[in-house]
Amino acid sequence: MALPTSVSLAVLSILLTVNSAISSLNATHESFMRYFLDHTSPSNSSSQILYSPNTTAYDAVLRSSIRNLRFLYSSSTTKPVLIVSATNESHVQAAVVCSRKHGLRVRVRSGGHDYEGMSYVSEGDRFIIVDLAAFRSVTVDAEHGTAWVLAGATLGEVYYTIAQKNRTVGFSAGTCPTVGVGGHLSGGGLGTLSRKYGTAADNIVDARLVDVNGRILDRQSMGEDYFWAIRGGGAASFGIVLSYKIELNYVPPIVTAFNVIRALKQDAAKLVTKWQQIGPNLDENLYMRVITLAKDDDEAEGNRTIEAIFNSLYLGRCEELLTVMGSSFPELGFEAADCNEMSWLESVLFFNNDSGRPTEVLLDRKQEFYISFKAKSDFVREPVTEIALEEIWMFLMEAKDEPLMLFMEPFGGVLNEIPESATPFPYRKGNLYMIQYFMWWLETDMETTERHLSWMRKLYAFMTPYVSKNPRAAYLNYKDIDLGRTARVWGPKYFKNNFKRLAYVKSKVDPHNFFRNEQSIPPVKSL
Ligand SMILES: Cc1cc2nc3c(=O)[nH]c(=O)nc-3n(C[C@H](O)[C@H](O)[C@H](O)COP(=O)(O)OP(=O)(O)OC[C@H]3O[C@@H](n4cnc5c(N)ncnc54)[C@H](O)[C@@H]3O)c2cc1C
Ligand SMILES: *[C@@H]1O[C@H](CO)[C@@H](O)[C@H](O)[C@H]1NC(C)=O
Ligand SMILES: *[C@@H]1O[C@H](CO)[C@@H](O)[C@H](O)[C@H]1NC(C)=O
Ligand SMILES: *[C@@H]1O[C@H](CO)[C@@H](O)[C@H](O)[C@H]1NC(C)=O
Ligand SMILES: *[C@@H]1O[C@H](CO)[C@@H](O)[C@H](O)[C@H]1NC(C)=O
Ligand SMILES: *[C@@H]1O[C@H](CO)[C@@H](O)[C@H](O)[C@H]1NC(C)=O
Ligand SMILES: *[C@@H]1O[C@H](CO)[C@@H](O)[C@H](O)[C@H]1NC(C)=O
Ligand SMILES: *[C@@H]1O[C@H](CO)[C@@H](O)[C@H](O)[C@H]1NC(C)=O
Q1: Which atom of ligand 2 is nearest to the CA of 24?
Q2: Which intervals hold domain FAD-binding PCMH-type (predicted)?
Q3: Whose CA is nearest to atom 12 of ligand 4?
Q4: Which of 135, 298, 326, 501 shows its CA 20 to 30 Å from the CA of 520?
């Protein structure tokens, strides 16, 4: 999703400097650095690897991939005592071994998009960051239709690199090009191709990771349980993923993207009501999600309205799409003028509201938007009635100063055919769509932040009758700390029956819970 680049970095710098001064530099710290340097291959002078808070680059390195500003100026989180900018696998291994030796924890950061900042802040642990931004190469094996992608690569780098080799390959993963492979693939990964090819995690065929003992394991040496867990269970609980081997997905040379926008007066409520039955049952080549938001009504001063954007991708040409739309959703009034034909790679720009720009922007890791945000997710199993939908929209319209948005992401297609236990991500057959509630803002004061967070919680409470129950499901990649810190409570929400198996794997591979964060899988004995 595209968001503005605006807030001044100066403010951030000040906040960061004040906070980092608190992390004292002491014996532990120096001994860590000495040990680390002794146990890694000598690095050349041009690439710095360790950043302690007393170095000028620390702030810049820390914020280099932070996507959610509210964790930068929060007083309830702590910052790393050291950042390891790994450029060699041996750095990652040493970081694990040294941290254990020195009683520090590790937070791993690939793309830095974690919704609760868990890759770069902590609520209490003393920790280091292992930053994998330099681990970013993508090596394509065109003959076998696979690629090894390093964990720090962004989705944009993956999409761009594979399309350079072959215009008819894509990869089923998220729509935001700056999201990192390390977090995204290990937490599931949903996007425009998921109805046809499943989640990103469904397309992982091998992996390399550093375990709690600092060993490098691949699929064969880690075993199938361990390999299962890091394909949707969140790798942060199990180790540090260095790379994933993925299966590439066929895409036609020309695809068609479109946005059809309907406001209340244009029967938006009827159309979205209907969409709930159609969207999840469409031809799997057609992905049609609905984004809804409230806004001032341009045609009626002082009134509010709802805009429903049917934000879509068809894996084929406009002509065929017209036939598909005519037979499955004639009410929408889709016409040839709505079609935008392009390559699949260009469609990534379309979904990021970057249409018309060169595809090289997908390689730009710095398309940073300096915003704060909060999101939550729900799964819908029974269509919401038109009356209920209107009540939900009334809630959005009344929350005048709250930038609330709903992304309704259709399921169905191949997602229905994959068993719930195939990967830790269990939301398959029986789910019509997922809702992401999303809000973002530019203000940095705590009062505004708290007000927004509280409206988000109100909306979530309001939605209770309309969404999945027992458990009320949530999507791990849309991590939500409001689900609590008690694993027995949030575990089944993210993973349903797969939660227990994740805890068993954890017991085997990291029994002392070294790899942990505020919502990580605990070993069975601490459940
Ligand atoms: C703007 C935006 C758009 C998004 N769009 C989508 C979308 O379209 N579809 C979708 O499914 N999701 C989407 N997401 C959510 C995204 O998938 C998750 O936030 C994902 O976890 C981010 O991965 P990351 O590597 O960028 O984040 P990070 O913050 O680096 O990591 C996220 C979590 O994974 C852990 N982790 C990271 N790398 C590793 C590693 N190498 N080994 C072990 N653990 C690791 C971190 O410690 C942290 O717990 C979006 C997020 C944002 C901010
Ligand atoms: C090092 O600093 C941390 C705080 O950052 C403190 O908790 C710890 O006790 C210190 N250790 C020594 C040996 O001074
Ligand atoms: C920063 O702190 C580390 C660890 O205490 C120390 O080794 C290093 O010399 C310090 N660097 C600067 C520039 O002060
Ligand atoms: C990592 O270091 C090892 C040992 O020095 C070296 O053999 C290897 O080539 C390095 N790998 C990379 C990617 O730099
Ligand atoms: C030194 O490090 C830089 C940055 O990581 C790298 O591009 C370069 O190849 C390295 N040079 C040598 C001689 O290893
Ligand atoms: C390109 O990928 C398609 C599958 O998406 C495959 O059939 C074709 O052989 C590939 N072409 C080349 C030149 O590798
Ligand atoms: C504004 O909304 C009110 C209440 O719903 C309605 O009666 C009125 O007709 C609307 N005004 C316009 C210009 O549409
Ligand atoms: C998309 O970009 C255009 C112009 O660049 C902007 O006016 C519009 O608001 C953006 N839309 C979204 C949904 O961000």
Answers
A1: 5
A2: 76-251
A3: 88
A4: 135
